[in-house]
Fold each of these.
Amino acid sequence: MALERTFSIIKPDATRRNLTGKINAMLEDAGLRIVAQKRAQLTKAQAEGFYAVHKERPFFNDLVAFMTSGPVVLQVLEGENAVLKNREIMGATNPADAAEGTIRKSFAESIEANSVHGSDSPENAAIEIAYFFSGIEIVG
Ligand code: RTP
Ligand code: MG
């Protein structure tokens, strides 16, 4: 199968607890390659734009406040079946439902402060990567 790319965010609850390296090790151990990575402090406008699909959801304002509450690490991950593979490593949105050994089971604090984001389809991955990265920043 051809290589695929997905977009990942290490969220503020995880950067605050200095978990970037541990999360990156789990991604790499699962066979994903980090082909772009940068730390950022999201603005309110950036977070609102990124999560625009959720703007009618009751948790939208809280989510934007959380995602701007501290630094994040923006990443492009590459590998076979990268979108699905990353979703498997992440685990369920709510850590109470996440499988043993997943990032969210290991580290998430709550359904909101759940340590990582990962694209949910190849189409959204392409949109999300382009939202934060230029082509020259991605080195596969
Ligand atoms: P993500 O987009 O961050 O990878 O997570 P996901 O697909 O597993 O979850 P999604 O339904 O897309 O929700 C996006 C993020 O919103 C926060 N959330 N809070 N308070 C709540 O009930 C609630 N539900 C979702 C989480 O941070 C979730 O990852
Ligand atoms: Mg999602």
Note: The beta strands are 3-10, 33-40, 72-80, 116-118.
Amino acid sequence: EIIIEIRNLSKIYSDGVDVYALDSINLEIHKGEFLAIVGPSGSGKSTLLHIIGILDTPTRGSIFIAGNDVSQMPDKDRSRIRNQVLGFVFQYHHLMPDFTALENVMMPLLIAGRTREEATRMANELLAEVGLEDRIDHRPTQLSGGQNQRVAVARALANSPAIVIGDEPTGNLDTKSSEKIYELIRRLNREHGQTFILVSHDEALARKADRVIHIVDGKIAE
Ligand code: ADP
Ligand code: ADP
């Protein structure tokens, strides 16, 4: 079952001369797949991930996410699909500094309309899943880089998104913490069947993924 279908997709930045950040990309991503996107700096990885995350639009071509042609939609519908289908983990965790781990994970649940009681129960379960049951009342400054990234993963999973995307999700971590985050993501991917699409320079990611795509100069390299 295909969850993302990308057809002849290009992203062109025109700044006097045209720069093809992405050049006629074709890609099918299967439901439940753990996909790694690797490639040199400036090759187009972030651009591709941002288009998949409905944060950016292609110049040409199409992208279907869970059956919706998101390249041709009004902003309102794009953000609805983004909120229903996608979860994000970024290089820097973007946790709210004045809130505890529990409150950070509760936030998307409350925004989605859960009661306080439900959100508390679900956030507790998510934090236990990422191994932080004894850190729920800590704030980001009281947690290590790896622990904060675990909170960010728990938060990304809060509303059970079909697709989780990560842009250098372990970019700020040492090798050992990085490995642990990838192992965690691998386990969550197996247990929940969610689709994970991660961009990284880190070879540890490529070793954990089901499939690795190399991007060079805006094209998928064979
Ligand atoms: P990567 O994530 O692989 O480092 P990017 O997707 O960030 O690569 O960038 C791909 C190419 O597109 C680069 O040549 C970059 O300079 C260019 N680019 C990215 N964003 C912009 C932008 N907002 N305006 C102009 N050029 C951009
Ligand atoms: P950088 O590539 O500089 O490390 P990030 O990967 O953190 O930046 O973010 C990339 C882009 O995605 C930025 O334009 C940022 O505004 C946007 N962004 C980051 N987090 C979110 C989010 N949770 N929801 C929507 N957009 C986000």
Note: Helices lie at 45-52, 75-85, 101-111, 116-129, 145-157, 175-192, 203-208.
